[in-house]
Automatic annotation (TrEMBL):
Belongs to the cytochrome b561 family. Its main location: membrane. GO terms for molecular function: electron transfer activity; heme binding; metal ion binding. Keywords: Cell membrane, Electron transport, Heme, Iron, Membrane, Metal-binding, Transmembrane, Transmembrane helix, Transport. It is a multi-pass membrane protein. The chain crosses the membrane at residues 12-32. The gene is yceJ_1. InterPro entries: Cyt_b561_bac/Ni-Hgenase, Cytochrome_b561_oxidase, Di-haem_cyt_TM. The keyword Transmembrane applies. Residues 7-48 form the Cytochrome b561 bacterial/Ni-hydrogenase domain. It comes from Enterobacter asburiae. One of its GO terms (cellular component) is plasma membrane. This is Cytochrome b561-like protein 2. It is found in: Cell membrane.
Length: 56
């Protein structure tokens, strides 16, 4: 019984770990897309740098 639980927990852990890795990579790629393709200030705001026309 314990071996089955350990195997199940291992599989769940593996899937969750890879999901976090994939989502992190997609998030980074989306930030780069905003910076290089859309040429907006999303990446600058994420890094804590204010935009020239931010209104603040």
């Amino acid at each position: 019984m314990r071996a089955l639980q350990a195997d199940t927990a291992g599989v769940i852990h593996l899937w969750l770990a890879w999901s976090v890795v994939i989502l992190s990579v997609l998030h980074g790629l989306a930030a780069l897309k905003h910076h290089f393709i859309d040429k907006d200030d999303t990446l600058k705001r994420m890094l804590g740098r204010s935009s020239v026309d931010s209104g603040a």
